[in-house]
Design a protein that fits this description.
The complex is a heterodimer of chains A (about 550) and B (about 400). With about 550 residues, chain A is an alpha/beta fold. Chain A has 18 helices and 22 strands. In chain A, strands 1, 2, 3, 4, 5, 6 and 19 form a seven-stranded mixed β-sheet that branches. In chain A, helix 1 packs parallel to helix 10, helix 5 packs parallel to helix 6 and helix 11 packs across helix 16. Chain A is globular and about 80 Å long. In chain A, about 60% of the residues are buried. In chain B, a hairpin with a 4-residue loop joins strand 12 and strand 13. In chain B, strands 1, 2, 6, 7, 8, 9, 16 and 17 form an eight-stranded mixed β-sheet that branches. In chain B, strands 10, 12, 13, 14 and 15 form a five-stranded antiparallel β-sheet that branches. In chain B, helix 1 crosses helix 9. With about 400 residues, chain B is an alpha/beta fold. The chains are: A alpha/beta (about 550), B alpha/beta (about 400).
């Protein structure tokens, strides 16, 4: 064979600046326990967590929906780092156990060889802080990335003050930096009741809990305790819209629902508040698992798309484990962090054992998640009521300003100012007639989900709307893909200071085949695209 | 499902070339059926730089003539925008940009050479590192995702049919022609068959005992968050191709490709690598005023190349009712013209608007079976299953 094509990736493979036997992503109860168990078994472990997240990232509702309700303290990185350490005692324990804990560090990519990539020297993660990015190679990976908010829109939800339960919990308990005094909580399941109690505990008033169903969904005792503390729970209600004279939420209009789920006109009431917390559901954060090619399935009892796992919490990809909320989230896990910890223990020890380390022994007890009612049916009920009360001219995708109507009509974005009879005849329904609906295809046409929040605020509601339009349920809509970087990072941060010389010297924009772009009327002429060390050939 | 159905023309492959050909045929009133193994335009056709400036090609003049009309002809938006600006950061890059411009000039198009100041006036986010540039008053760019869907919808509007999630598994020949196409969803009769199946085109050719050397490779692109619109969105250079979209995103690709093996009719998943960082750097160098802009997405696509990088668009001598088409990794921008050429090959046996003599299969008669090894165009390792955790 001749030399490998110099313009190909051959000889330019990225070199991780460090290689460790085990990387654990996420320092919640699952990740911390996994890291500690593996370290105690003698494995070198790096534990990466993105908190404290940079203020600019938080302002984009990344990674959780913070709803612009961070107080000024989040700009003080040093103070936030202190708080994150203070509020998570597991970090100190991990440190004591010899774990290399890296905070304020984003994991924005996971890169592995597969059918279309065969050139990587090892599996590796893309990491970054606010200044630079780097690569870290691993032998084993435990993903404990948690869960993110399921959000549904209502008129005025673009205003500052619309949070998700996971974002609110982070601001309350982790950062102690929630800039809201009076909260309305949407959803009375375990998540809503838990969030209400957390808010009260931190001195935030709960103006109301709004529930679409005719009864409180969560634990009756917990609901009574909240009622006793003066929190009104409005069952059979939905949201008409959020109001405010500026870009801020100043009040929320709710409306009662009749037995058929239709809004009862005249039953509107205005609740003064400065924040609305959507506590309808959370769903596992499977971005990194998707990037390494782990098989996922839709598990109604576990909050949506979850990785397929064996008894040792190993995914379909050898050497990659998942634990905690990202492996599947359910109500019992809110009350009992021990469930996630136990999963982390299993995953951490299994990873350590597969590396040849001898753990402390003992059987691995994989907890069986409690079966719950399918949460996506509940999401769908909420969406139906929000459509009934708020209509179709409500943004689904805030970043790209795509309304529910524009989504189901597959309208091109407004800035194209396009109209034609042919276009008007097309819709999600006609697409469904051409084959199973695919959220990525609809995304390309409408742009819903293509903005800087990387579809965190609209993924599930787009899926729900597509399912509704196709007369099916969200579990039948294929999981839309996640693309790196799974955190929106500036070009200057991603900039590879470690770029191999050959990358610069042999770089061409296209294949560098001398005849590819030669004028066809000058047969035999070559026009080799020059590289840093070659000249233009004619 | 073993029912026999069919169409006058069956097109294998719902990529941009097959869809354009199908649309031109349907417009002409021909009964056409497109068979697509996945979703239309899902592979490289819908994930590329969107460039429409290929005046060097036999299809080049027709490409330039058609693009400004495409929105109206299709009835759907393609986001086509005219003109290109090339920014050079070195004298070598400037020489290349000039060469592109001069090829256009030879075809009768107008361009201007820009100095650094002019570059910065036209592209305010360009930097002092620019040595100059070119302003092409020809060429342009469009949105690949919107365009492939427009071809598909337009084709349907003219009575054509598309079957997605339908993989072709065999071609049945009788009397020197392909009479039926076998698929995972039954068998389809055809008077004429067009094979425009991207990296898989070579495998179909092989079924017909026709030698079409193709090497598949993976290439990657990145997309930023939107920034305010530039006066001319078709800005490229520094070894990057791409554009600013009408939404404002900077969408660019370039750099090393990875030669791979595609062992069967399935297309592997669209995986990115740490190359996204190198692309980010190149873009920050090209447009220093955008260095703070956030990267929000990346993607990859598989493209195929012939040994000389030129397309094959030919109506075969035997079986004589087959048109074979691969654009050798440069298919999107040329698609209005290539589709038209294919529709003419189907209807008239020859292309009426261009001489396709340079794009025939005959040029590969002496290409040996192991040509990829000779060229160094080989995969790093044999094709592997998705052991995505790596080598543990």
């Amino acid at each position: 064979m001749r030399e490998p094509d110099p313009r190909s990736i051959a000889g330019k493979a990225p070199t991780p600046e460090r290689h460790v036997p085990l990387v654990v992503v996420g320092a919640g109860p699952a990740g911390v326990t996994a890291a500690i168990e593996a370290a105690r078994a003698g494995v070198e472990v790096v534990l990466v967590d993105e908190h404290p997240v940079d203020n600019d990232m938080m302002a984009m509702d990344v990674p959780l929906c913070f709803g612009q309700r961070m107080d000024g303290a989040v700009r003080n990185r040093a103070a936030m780092l202190e708080r994150v350490v203070e509020t998570n005692p597991g970090l100190a324990s991990a440190n004591d156990a010899g774990v290399d804990v890296q905070l304020g560090t984003y994991v924005w990519g996971a890169f592995v060889n597969g059918p279309s990539v065969q050139s990587l020297p090892a599996p590796m993660l893309g990491l970054a802080d606010d200044r630079r990015s780097w690569l870290i190679g691993y032998d084993r990976l435990v993903v404990a990335a948690g869960a993110r908010d399921v959000l549904l829109g209502f008129p005025g939800w673009e205003r500052a003050g619309t949070l998700g339960a996971a974002g609110a919990a982070a601001l309350l308990a982790r950062y102690r930096a929630l800039a809201a005094r009076r909260l309305v909580i949407v959803g009375s399941g375990a998540l809503g009741l838990h969030t209400a109690a957390l808010a009260l505990e931190h001195g935030v008033e709960v103006a109301a809990i709004v529930e679409v169903e005719g009864r409180v969904r969560g634990n009756a005792d917990a609901a009574r305790a909240l009622a006793a503390r003066g929190v009104p729970i409005l069952t059979a209600h939905t949201i008409r819209g959020a109001r405010g004279r500026t870009g801020e939420i100043e009040s929320l209009v709710v409306v009662g629902l009749d037995g058929q789920g239709a809004p009862v006109s005249g039953s509107e009431r205005v609740i003064a508040c400065d924040a609305v917390c959507l506590a309808i559901g959370v769903t596992p954060s499977v971005e990194l698992l998707h990037l390494v090619g782990a098989r996922v399935r839709f598990a109604a009892a576990l909050g949506g798309w979850v990785p397929e796992l064996d008894a040792a919490m190993q995914t379909s990809v050898a050497g990659v484990f998942a634990a905690g909320d990202c492996a599947g989230v359910h109500d019992a896990m809110l009350a009992d962090p021990g469930i996630a910890s136990e999963q982390g223990r299993v995953a951490g020890l299994a990873a350590a054992e597969s590396l040849g380390a001898t753990g402390r022994g003992g059987p691995l007890r994989t907890p069986v998640p409690a079966a719950t009612e399918a949460p996506h049916a509940y999401w769908q009920t909420w969406l139906a009521s929000l459509i009934a009360a708020g209509g179709w001219e409500v943004n689904v995708c805030q970043c790209e300003e795509v309304t529910r109507r524009e989504l189901v009509e597959t309208r091109p974005p407004r800035y194209l100012k396009w109209d034609s009879p042919q276009m008007s005849a097309r819709s999600v329904s006609t697409l469904a007639g051409d084959g199973p609906l695919n959220q990525d295809q609809v995304k390309r046409l409408t742009r819903a989900g293509m903005g800087p929040c990387q579809s965190r605020r609209c993924r599930e509601q787009v899926g729900l709307l597509l399912a509704q339009a196709a007369g099916t349920t969200i579990d039948r809509i294929p999981l839309p893909t996640f693309r790196p970087p799974v955190r929106p990072l500036p070009l200057s941060v991603l900039w590879p200071a470690d770029e191999p010389a050959a990358m610069r010297e042999e770089w061409v924009s296209w294949f560098g085949i001398p005849t590819q772009f030669s004028p066809h009327w000058e047969a035999g002429m070559a026009m080799d695209e020059p590289t840093a060390h070659t000249r233009l050939v004619e | 499902m073993t029912t026999t159905r069919g169409a006058a023309v069956v097109i294998i492959g719902g990529g941009v070339t097959g869809l354009s050909a199908g649309w031109w045929l349907a417009r002409a009133g021909v009964d056409v059926l497109v068979l697509e193994k996945g979703i239309v335009g899902w592979e490289a056709s819908g994930r590329n730089g969107g460039g429409a400036t290929h005046v060097y090609s036999p299809f080049g003049l027709e490409e330039q003539r058609l693009w400004p009309q495409m929105d109206g002809l299709l009835g759907y938006p393609t986001e086509h925008q005219p003109e290109r600006i090339g920014i050079a950061l070195t004298e070598t890059q400037l020489a290349l940009a000039r060469r592109w411009a001069e090829i256009g000039e030879l075809r009768g198009f107008r361009w201007e050479l820009l100095d650094r100041q002019q570059v910065k006036e036209l592209v305010p986010i360009a930097g002092d590192n620019a040595v100059g540039g070119t302003y092409l008053h020809f060429g342009g760019h469009a949105n690949p995702q919107r365009t492939v869907q427009a071809y598909a919808w337009g084709l349907q509007d003219h009575g054509g049919r598309i079957l997605q999630h339908t993989t072709v598994t065999g071609l049945v020949q009788r009397g020197g022609r392909v009479i039926t196409v076998e698929t995972t969803r039954g068998t389809f009769g055809a008077d004429v068959v067009v094979i425009a199946a991207g990296p898989q085109t070579g495998m179909f050719a092989e079924m017909l005992d026709v030698w079409l050397p193709l090497a598949p490779a993976r290439v990657e692109m990145i997309a930023t968050e939107p920034i305010p619109l530039l006066a001319v969105g078709g800005v490229a250079g520094n070894g990057l191709y791409g554009r600013q979209t009408l939404r404002g995103n900077l969408v660019y690709g370039g750099g090393p490709h990875e030669w791979i093996n595609v062992p069967d009719m399935a297309t592997p998943s669209h995986t990115n690598t740490p190359l996204v960082r190198n692309l980010a750097r190149r873009l920050a160098e090209l447009l220093p005023g955008a260095a703070h802009v956030r990267l929000i997405r990346s993607w990859s696509g598989l493209v195929e190349n012939t040994p000389d990088g030129l397309p094959v668009v030919e109506r075969l001598a035997r079986p004589h009712n087959v048109v074979l088409a691969t654009m050798s990794s440069v298919g999107f921008g040329l698609s209005p013209a290539s589709g038209r050429a294919i529709s003419e090959l189907v209807q008239h046996g020859r292309c009426l608007f261009a001489d396709l003599g340079a794009l025939g299969l005959a040029r590969f008669a002496d290409t040996p079976p192991d040509w990829r090894e000779h060229a160094g165009w080989v995969a790093a390792r044999p094709a592997v299953e998705a052991t995505a955790g790596g080598d543990c």
